[in-house]
């Protein structure tokens, strides 16, 4: 590989392996801090499934509500909030001509909050995933979509679910400020000024 390719691969590993999962977990706890009744369900599930041990692969299917919480969090605050795709030929999309080589931007932030597809789209409602709703393609895509979908999607889901459950076993999460945290859309969706919060031992 060229030096540029090595650099790009290293950036992918750092961003994909650390940045986006940590943002997903931070935004999830931010949402849970505002909905203590939902947080209690996460605590209860973690207590019931994990007790005092480390999670095992088989536990992933038992942490069903925690996974719904994570899925809903990534709907409202997708760590990857925008992606681009290059047109490989001249085409047209919704009567808009797209020349070969043009970059088409697709936003998870916009699609995930579209009330044509999600009832009360701006509300944090993990239970909306309980019935495994069938959505049109490219309506919910926190890990991207198509041939270049994130190769680590399944691992990241497991990682974030287990980290949330392990944290929930030991701590409660509370915001240290009454002010809302504004998302900052850089390459990833970061909390402006960080996430001022405190962990309270259970």
Q: Mind explaining what this structure looks like?
A:
The protein is an alpha+beta fold and 202 residues long. It has one domain (15-201): Orthogonal Bundle (Cytochrome p450). It is 41% helix and 16% strand. Strands 1-4 form a two-stranded antiparallel sheet. It has a two-stranded antiparallel ribbon with strand order 2-3. A hairpin with a 3-residue loop joins strand 6 (183-185) and strand 7. Helix 1 crosses helix 3 and helix 2 (36-50) runs antiparallel to helix 3. The termini are far apart.
Report a brief summary of the structure:
The protein has 202 residues and is of the alpha+beta class. The chain has five helices and eight strands; from the N terminus they run H-H-H-E-E-E-E-H-H-E-E-E-E. 41% of the residues lie in helices and 16% in strands.
List keywords for this structure.
single chain; 202 residues; alpha+beta; Cytochrome p450; two-stranded antiparallel ribbon; 41% helix; 16% strand; globular
């Amino acid at each position: 590989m060229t030096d540029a390719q090595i650099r790009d691969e290293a950036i992918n590993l750092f961003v994909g392996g650390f940045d986006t999962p940590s943002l997903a977990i931070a935004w999830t706890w931010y949402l849970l801090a505002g909905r203590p009744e939902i947080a209690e369900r996460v605590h209860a599930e973690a207590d019931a499934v994990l007790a005092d041990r480390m999670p095992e692969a088989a536990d992933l299917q038992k942490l069903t509500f925690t996974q719904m919480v994570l899925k809903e969090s990534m709907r409202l605050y997708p760590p990857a909030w925008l992606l681009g795709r290059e047109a490989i030929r001249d085409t047209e999309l919704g009567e808009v001509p797209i020349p070969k080589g043009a970059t088409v931007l697709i936003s998870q932030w916009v699609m995930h909050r579209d009330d044509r597809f999600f009832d009360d789209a701006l509300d944090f409602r993990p239970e909306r995933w309980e019935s495994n709703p069938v959505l049109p393609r490219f309506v919910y895509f926190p890990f991207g979509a198509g041939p270049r979908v994130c190769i680590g999607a399944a691992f990241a889901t497991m990682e974030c679910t287990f980290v949330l459950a392990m944290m929930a076993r030991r701590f409660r999460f509370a915001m240290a400020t009454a002010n809302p945290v504004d998302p900052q859309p850089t390459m990833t969706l970061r909390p402006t000024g960080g996430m001022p919060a405190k962990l309270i031992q259970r």
